[in-house]
Amino acid sequence: MDLKSPVLTWTLRAGAVVALIGLVGLLVAASGVIPVKASSGHWAITEWLLRFAKRRSIDTQTLTQNAPRFEERWLVLKGAGHYEGGCRPCHGSPEREIPRIAAAMTPPPPPLAALVAQREPKELEYVVRHGIKFTGMPAWPAPERDDEVRAVVAFLLELPKLSPASYRALVHGDGSLETETPNTPRAVQSSCARCHGADGLGRGLGAFPKLAGQKRDYLVAALEAYALNRRHSGIMGPIAASLEPGTRRALAAYYAELPAGAPPGEADPSRVARGRTIALEGVPKRGIPSCIDCHGPGAERRNPLYPNLSGQYRDFLVLQLELFREGRRGGSPYAHIMRHFAGRLTPEQVRDVASYYASLPVEGAARER
Ligand code: HEC
Ligand code: HEC
Ligand code: HEC
Question: Which of 355, 236, 366, 361 is nearest to 296 (CA)?
Fold first, then answer.
């Protein structure tokens, strides 16, 4: 190598300058003069730099991502239920301004209604999924559940159109959910009713599962699985984890005792007929067992941890089967049973069998415990 080459000399000089800047930076940091206090906000230059880096990063990272699709009509309802508990405490809502404690963060969480118009849906999806480093914006707590992130984004896109009254109606329903009795556990109103209803019927669209009339032991096991993150959900996980085991049991007992109401029904009789065949006979040539031995209807002495499916919302059953199919659905220590064969059901068979169960009356099928 020619040690006198001008290229080498300049490279060495440039390297020395960079090393010197790095050293000075390190010394300044080590001296402790850089304030980390949130109370004074950022210097204008730091703020500009952080914003610039954030915009560039989100632009580049979402470049090849497809725009999310929002087909299911219940996505907005599901996202709204989560927003009230998971986002409103930092970002405020049409009903309430940003809470004082959150407003004291650096950077403060922005009000989202105005911001949504400046972002593409895929950018919102990226931010809700991954969060933003060096700010208080958290990542989605269940990385397995992109479908839940999509529900939140579907809601964000509606947010600019919502008045305080329409936000309230979306999040809490029309008030007919207030079927409270002196025996209703307090946590029902404070943490379950806005999504599952105090009546346990799940607000009618399939965004939230029906809990009324479900087996008590299954409900306890499901809550425990969410709490321990053995069943993954960024919506239910944090809620279940915040409940004492005794409260989980009380809530399960409360919902299990409620009348299960009419089945949601299914408009397509040929689907129901095909689904009935799968439920009763399985699909022997693909190694799929019949469902009724474990899930009913008609099975008398079933394991109390095998959930009733009769009268449950079709779309909820489809979602859970899809999660099993893709290995994303955990659950109780029995959940592995489902994973053995769920992957062999075709998407059409999943819809058929879910339609069959959604069409079944709950009484008779679901009351035995
Ligand atoms: C602990 C507080 C906190 C929670 C909870 C929170 N955020 Fe944020 N969020 C922030 C902060 C702080 C920022 C500002 C980041 C910045 O300025 O770069 C932010 C920024 C955002 C942005 C703007 C990103 C951009 O492009 O500039 C969106 C969108 C957002 N949050 C959505 C949500 C949603 C949806 C939820 C609920 C699922 C949520 N946030 C929950 C604190 C929070
Ligand atoms: C923000 C809306 C929301 C709130 C509040 C909420 N849930 Fe849920 N819950 C859901 C969603 C969505 C699911 C489906 C999650 C999944 O895909 O695993 C669910 C699932 C469940 C399940 C599993 C049902 C099944 O058939 O597998 C149980 C049990 C449950 N919730 C109980 C509760 C209880 C008890 C509370 C109150 C402490 C509560 N939930 C509060 C939205 C909510
Ligand atoms: C050998 C028993 C067994 C058989 C057979 C069986 N399942 Fe399951 N299934 C289970 C168990 C156990 C769970 C609960 C897993 C958990 O959450 O712990 C479950 C859960 C489910 C769920 C989720 C329900 C909810 O509320 O989250 C659906 C949907 C389901 N099964 C559909 C089916 C279908 C469709 C068939 C037939 C093709 C079938 N299962 C056959 C044992 C069985």
Answer: 366
Pocket flag, ligand 1, residue 122 (CB < 6 Å): no
Torsion of CA 357, 210, 368, 309, to 10 degrees: 20
Closest atom of ligand 1 to CA, residue 152: 35
Q: Which residues line ligand 2 (CB under 6 A)?
A: 78, 81-82, 85, 187, 191-192, 194-196, 208-209, 211, 219, 222-223, 233, 235-236, 239, 243, 251, 307
Q: Are 235 and 148 a contacting pair, CB within 8 Å?
A: yes
Q: Which two tokens stand for residue 163?
A: 């008045």
Distance of CA 209 to the CA centre of its chain: 13
Omega cis (within 30) before 109 = no
Nearest Cα to Cα of residue 363 among 259, 292, 265, 264: 259
Cβ–ligand 1 distance for 127 under 6 Å, the answer yes
d(CA 125, CA 201): 29
Q: How far apart are CA 120 and CA 234, in angstroms?
A: 23
CA distance 194 to 176: 11
Q: What is the whole-number distance in angstroms between the Cα of residue 89 and the centre of ligand 1? A: 11
Please report, as a single letter, which amino acid is at residue 188.
Answer: V
Q: Which pLDDT does position 361 carry in this prediction?
A: 84
285 CB contacts (<8 Å, ≥6 apart)?
A: none
Residues 211, 271, 320: CA angle, nearest 5 degrees = 35
Query: Residue 136 CA: which ligand 1 atom is closest?
Result: 12
Mean pLDDT of the chain: 92
Tens of pLDDT, residue by residue over 88-104, are 999 999 999 999 999 99
Q: How confident is the model at residue 55 (pLDDT cuts 50, 70, 90)?
A: very high
For the CA of 87, the nearest atom of ligand 1: 37
Tokens of 309: 């499916």
- Compute how many other C-beta atoms are within 10 angstroms of the C-beta atom of residue 156: 25
| Tens digit of each residue's pLDDT (9 = 90 or more) over 329-365 | 999 999 999 998 999 999 999 999 999 999 998 754 4
214 within 8 A of 259, measured Cβ to Cβ: no
Give dist(CA 89, CA 271) in Å, integer.
Answer: 43
